[in-house]
Write a structure and sequence with these properties.
By secondary structure, the protein is of the alpha+beta class. The strands form five sheets. Strands 8, 9, 10 and 13 form a four-stranded mixed β-sheet that branches. A three-stranded antiparallel β-sheet has the order 4-6-7. Helix 1 packs across helix 4, helix 9 runs antiparallel to helix 15 and helix 18 packs across helix 22.
């Protein structure tokens, strides 16, 4: 397997995801030279007895305490020299006392990403870690040792101290770790893969546990999911638009050129691509029949009798057309499933504005995270090549460990996730509600006997998830709780933010899966109802077709001849049309879903199907099918 080379300068989000999922790493030799210079510089400053924070002083509120040459208890009468190095003890204690997280272990993917981020930032050569320690950390990652890191314990400044200490303590032979899925003491884990524990030197404990690796790792993995979910949301929306026989004018390129927010423009373009080739979208209103319940005499042929619906229109008599005569020159006087209105509801018409705004929030997080991936985030910062009169100008205490840049970007994303879930649920609700579904059956089931619920409760589940997402969207970054005896008096809470966002992405995927599951059912009904009307127009007699239109005047009535003529024109237009179908990409995604989940013709247990729909979103099957179709590839 090819190693991904880390150099502290060029790590990408996609590479980090690969490493999180098992790829190994190697260290850039040039970067290791910079690492060696910084470590040697620190060792020389200690030899010269220079006071350096975190090296020859305590940490945090103990920063005013200088380390002595030996433990004070060595000076007790009759005491024997302990041989303890206070510098080494300082670093050791920093790690072992800070590893106090609680909760369930983080996933192996998150932990591997944290290890990679820590290695990469230390390669910048401004942290003071020794080459051999960095190599040991790398060997642990490549050997598949996954430290047990409980979820809760970081305030996001001074970095992710507690969770990073759980990483580092295994390197010292402490804590716990997983090896090939088996949980064991850290020392046993190292022994299992042929590694030895490390004894820390100057500033190495601080270099290992001071930084933003947890929030960055979780954030990058969350963004990786979100990138796919944004595409999935557009696909779900496109399938719903086809199921509604929606209007495409709201997605026109020239429309969005007038308000060119990047995400909005991109989503409009995606919808146009996904709906390319659709003959359901923008279909003339009068051609769309509405659902009527199946009855034994609804259809005359055995093939048609197998349908789970009947169809119909209402005729608009001449007496109700005054002031609208010009309209009825273009559109035939029949009210079916689609209302004669030039615009769809907000949840359809405003998809680019809503999905696009979410994309822009995610894009801002991309920008922030791309910088952070190759940044130094510990403290103090070592500048061994800088010429200066005093060591304070070469070892500078700053605040790069503070996670607020990531926390605020994650807060933005966190607020955006329920927005995307909410508009998805609103589309789903429109599909199942006969008052808003433009002529589809209630809850998307034939229900001729009145015993069936269809997709009714699917919407309940989506509503429950949306509410849960909304209640979790409160930004953690706005509520700082000071730590370290108020030495660290403003913290980011970015780790909580990242943890929330990562978990929320999974639930967003569930809502989108429920929309796709429901939209597929609705699309089947819409397509089959219109094509049933077309088939009847082509193969049935005039009287049989006219029977589907309510409001016909009696024979001999003054409007009867006009009715017959206009019904004949409707029939002729349908008969002359090609079979109606969704967009090419939508059709491919629909087919992929139907390979694993059948059409709901009668009530049955839906739990397994809902779980399968979620899997289809998680594994990307529907997205891949749509992409292949867009690219003109077969099956």
């Amino acid at each position: 397997m090819k190693h991904i080379r880390l150099d502290g300068r060029s790590l990408t989000r996609s590479q980090l995801v690969m490493i999180a999922n098992g790829a190994s790493v190697e260290l850039d030799p040039v970067a290791l030279q910079a690492v060696e210079r910084a470590a040697a510089f620190l060792a020389e400053q200690v030899r010269r007895e220079e006071p350096i924070y975190g090296v020859s002083t305590g940490f945090g509120s103990n920063a005013d305490k200088l380390l002595g040459a030996h433990p004070l208890r060595d000076e007790l009468p009759g005491a024997k020299p302990s041989g303890r190095s206070l510098h080494a003890e300082l670093q050791q204690n920093l790690v072992v006392t800070h590893a106090v997280c609680v909760g369930e272990p983080m996933s192996p993917e998150v932990v591997r990403a944290m290890l990679c981020i820590r290695i990469n930032t230390l390669l910048k050569g401004h942290s003071g870690i020794r080459v051999q320690t960095l190599q040991a950390l790398t060997a642990m990652l490549n050997a598949g040792v996954v430290p047990v890191v409980p979820e809760l314990g970081s305030v996001g400044a001074s970095g992710d101290l507690a969770p990073l200490s759980h990483l580092a303590i295994v390197l010292l032979g402490g804590g716990e770790a997983f090896v090939e899925g088996e949980r064991m003491p850290g020392a046993d884990a190292l022994r299992r893969v042929g590694l030895e524990p490390v004894t820390l030197s100057y500033k190495e404990g601080l270099a290992l546990n001071n930084g933003t690796a947890q929030m960055l790792a979780m954030g990058v993995l969350a963004l990786d999911r979100l990138d796919r979910l944004l595409e999935t949301a557009d696909l779900a929306a496109a399938m719903t638009i086809d199921a509604f026989a929606g209007r495409l004018g709201a997605f026109a390129e020239e429309v969005h050129a007038l308000r060119p927010h990047p995400g909005q423009v991109e989503v409009a373009a995606r919808l146009r691509a996904l709906l390319e080739g659709s003959t359901l979208a923008d279909i003339p209103y009068h051609l769309v029949p509405r659902f009527r319940q199946w009855l034994p005499d609804s259809w005359q042929t055995p093939e048609a009798q197998a349908l789970s619906f009947d169809i119909g229109w209402d005729w608009v008599p001449a007496s109700q057309r005054h002031g609208r005569e010009k309209f009825y020159l273009r559109f035939k006087p029949f009210r079916g499933g689609k209302k004669h209105q030039p615009q769809d509801s907000y949840s359809l018409r405003c998809i680019p504005q809503v999905h696009g705004a979410v994309r822009d929030a995610v894009e801002q997080a991309h920008r922030v995270f791309d910088i952070e991936l190759n940044a130094v985030t510990d403290n103090p910062l070592v500048f061994p090549d800088r010429q200066a009169a005093h060591v304070e100008e070469q070892v500078i205490s700053a605040g790069h460990f503070h996670g607020m840049p990531l926390a605020l970007a994650l807060s933005y994303v966190k607020a955006a996730i329920p927005v995307l879930a909410s508009i998805s649920e609103r589309r789903l609700n429109k599909l199942v509600d006969p008052a808003t579904s433009d002529g589809l059956p209630a809850f998307l089931i034939g229900n001729e006997d009145g015993t069936e619920s269809g997709h009714m409760i699917v919407q309940y589940t989506a509503a429950a998830i949306v509410n849960d997402l909304a209640t979790r969207a409160h930004p953690a970054s706005v509520y700082s709780v000071p730590t370290s005896a108020n030495a660290e008096d403003h913290v980011s809470m970015g780790a909580n933010e990242a943890r929330h966002v990562l978990s929320m992405t999974a639930d967003l995927g569930k809502v989108l899966a429920l929309e796709l599951y429901t939209a597929a059912q609705a699309l089947d009904f819409r397509r089959d109802m219109i094509n049933a009307a077309r088939d009847l127009a082509r193969s049935g007699d005039a009287a049989g077709f006219a029977a589907k239109v309510h409001g016909a005047p009696m024979a001999g009535h003054r409007d009867h001849a006009q009715f017959v003529e206009e019904v004949g024109a409707l029939r002729a237009e349908l008969a002359a049309s090609e079979p109606y179908h969704p967009g090419v990409a939508v059709a491919a995604a629909h087919a992929a879903l139907r390979e694993r989940i059948g059409f709901l013709d009668r009530d049955r247990a839906l739990d397994g199907e809902v779980a399968e729909a979620v899997r289809l979103v998680v594994d990307g099957s529907l997205l891949q099918a749509a992409r292949r179709a867009e690219a003109g590839e077969g099956g």
